[in-house]
């Protein structure tokens, strides 16, 4: 998982280089964030200038030569004096070691700043997006971050989207690194991503005394949570389970080196996703063993981890199939779904409403409304189509609220445009909770990405906890 996230982050950082004109930046004030730029303002964004504080060796660096030297060093074991000097300056060994610990290692911030500066200089020199992507693919290959086809595939799948996003972002390079990595990048504060929202005016709850203890005769609710099924329709028994890519156990993974490396009938603990036989039999076992389930919380991440070749059509097909499977076996049991970060294409990319039309999320959200309608009332469809969140009763006095946490995710590169409660989801949540409190309802809030975690933006998490507390 972390390897693929690094590839995605690596690519994002490679081309996250656009700085806005100062007059646009001045329009943005802490806690008073403008929700979107107009098209005329987009056109005012210029190609970035090289930061004069960058060291001379970086401003004058020949990246083609550096990549060539790195390739030779891996093949023959010797660095040139020039490459050795550059690597020492940017601490390349520590940078590569930081791949597996993105959110803790200061080395990941070093790598981020290097890539941002590299792309900034390339753009200033008139390099095209294709040329920048080509350099990114070469670096991915030289450092063996992934296999060549994964390096190339990730660049192509998210390339157009990320280029559009960063060209319309007014963040500086250091701010971009802070946005994606958080704590490891101590510098790079951006006022526009430090925000809060106006919470719906709270009323003091009426506490009824004396508090009554629930009767022991009232049975407790039994709730089943299912998450991260990652069903892989291309799973193949006997294929290579240790192929060196984010996802193996497919015919395309090649033949195993030994019987120990072969994918088993029921799945594999290595880099493999869920075969149908495992998913279906697990559900059958649950149904047979637990006949008293009152409700199911189904918290997302349905597609496999083949993020370098995914299409919207693939993910929709997976959503339809898995939804039918749930409905087939859990008959008569209410299901409350949430959307995961893997449901979108590209992975983690959930565009806000003000994004250009071709990035609109209706291709996913409309289908979620259709599939989820098996279990949810019609009145939830409006907010599901808006942003895959909803509020509904499980039973009288007990409400379930499902939030779309992808709009708090650091890996959602669309938030570089504007991270301030893009769907007014938190404002909506505040009102829903106040309404539930007024009615004396108990509430469960479900979702895929937990607020307060390292992958969730601090401002979103803080606003969320202000609301629920």
Summarize this, please?
The chain is about 40% helix and about 5% strand.
Describe the structure.
This protein starts with a helix and ends with a helix. The strands form 2 sheets. The protein has a 3-stranded parallel beta sheet with strand order 1-2-3, with no helix packed on it. It is 42% helix and 6% strand. 42% of the residues are buried. The chain is mainly alpha-helical. It has 17 helices and 6 strands. α1 (2-15) runs antiparallel to α9, α1 crosses α10 and α9 runs antiparallel to α10. The chain is globular, with a radius of gyration of 24 Å.
Compute the number of helices.
17
Low-confidence stretches: 6-53
Estimate the helix proportion, in percent. 40-55%
Strand order of the largest sheet: 1-2-3
Radius of gyration: 24 Å
Instruction: Briefly note the structural class of the backbone.
Output: mainly alpha
Shape: globular
Strand content: 5-15%
Report the sheet with the most strands, covering strand number, pairing sense and barrel closure.
Answer: 3 strands, parallel
Averaging pLDDT over every residue, what do you get?
81
Number of strands: 6
Distance between the termini: 32 Å
Name the helix and strand elements from N-terminus to C-terminus, one letter apiece.
Answer: HHHHHHHHHHHEHEHEHHEEHEH
Organism: Trichogramma kaykai
Catalytic activity: a sphingomyelin + H2O = phosphocholine + an N-acylsphing-4-enine + H(+)
Keywords: Disulfide bond, Glycoprotein, Glycosidase, Hydrolase, Metal-binding, Secreted, Signal, Zinc
Protein name: Saposin B-type domain-containing protein
């Amino acid at each position: 998982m972390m390897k693929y996230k690094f590839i995605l982050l690596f690519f994002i950082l490679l081309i996250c280089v656009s700085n806005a004109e100062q007059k646009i930046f001045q329009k943005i004030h802490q806690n008073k964030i403008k929700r979107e730029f107009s098209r005329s303002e987009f056109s005012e964004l210029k190609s970035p200038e090289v930061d004069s504080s960058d060291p001379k060796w970086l401003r004058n660096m020949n990246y083609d030569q550096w990549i060539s030297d790195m390739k030779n060093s891996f093949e023959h074991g010797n660095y040139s004096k020039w490459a050795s000097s550059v690597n020492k300056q940017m601490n390349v060994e520590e940078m590569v070691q930081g791949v597996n610990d993105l959110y803790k290692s200061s080395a990941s911030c070093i790598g981020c700043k290097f890539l941002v500066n590299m792309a900034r200089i390339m753009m200033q020199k008139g390099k095209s997006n294709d040329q920048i992507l080509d350099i990114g693919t070469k670096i991915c290959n030289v450092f063996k971050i992934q296999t060549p086809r994964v390096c190339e595939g990730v660049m192509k799948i998210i390339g157009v989207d990320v280029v559009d996003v960063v060209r319309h972002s007014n963040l500086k390079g250091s701010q971009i690194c802070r946005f994606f990595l958080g704590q490891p990048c101590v510098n790079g504060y951006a006022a526009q991503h430090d925000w809060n929202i106006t919470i719906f005016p709270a009323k003091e709850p009426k506490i009824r005394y004396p508090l009554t203890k629930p009767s022991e005769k009232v049975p407790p609710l039994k709730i089943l949570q299912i998450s991260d099924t990652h069903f892989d329709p291309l799973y193949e028994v006997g294929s290579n389970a240790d192929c060196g890519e984010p996802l193996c156990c497919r015919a395309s993974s090649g033949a195993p080196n030994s019987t120990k490396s072969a994918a088993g009938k029921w799945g594999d603990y290595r880099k493999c996703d869920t075969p149908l036989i495992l998913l279906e039999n697990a559900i059958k076992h649950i149904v047979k063993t637990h006949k008293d389930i009152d409700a199911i919380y189904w918290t997302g991440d349905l597609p496999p981890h083949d993020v370098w070749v995914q299409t919207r059509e693939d993910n929709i097909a997976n959503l339809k199939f898995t939804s039918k499977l749930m409905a087939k076996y859990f008959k008569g049991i209410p299901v409350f779904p949430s959307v995961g970060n893997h449901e979108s294409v590209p992975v983690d990319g959930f565009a806000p409403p003000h994004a250009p039309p071709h990035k609109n999320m209706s291709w996913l959200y409309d289908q979620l409304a259709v599939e989820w309608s098996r279990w949810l009332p019609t009145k939830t469809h409006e907010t599901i189509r808006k942003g895959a969140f909803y509020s509904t009763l499980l039973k009288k006095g007990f409400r379930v609220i499902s939030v779309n946490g992808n709009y708090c995710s650091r890996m959602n590169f669309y938030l570089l445009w504007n991270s301030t409660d893009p769907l007014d989801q938190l404002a909506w949540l505040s009102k829903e909770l106040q309404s539930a409190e007024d009615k004396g309802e108990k509430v469960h809030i479900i979702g895929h990405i937990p607020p307060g975690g390292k992958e969730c933006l601090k401002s979103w998490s803080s606003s969320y906890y202000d609301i629920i507390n």
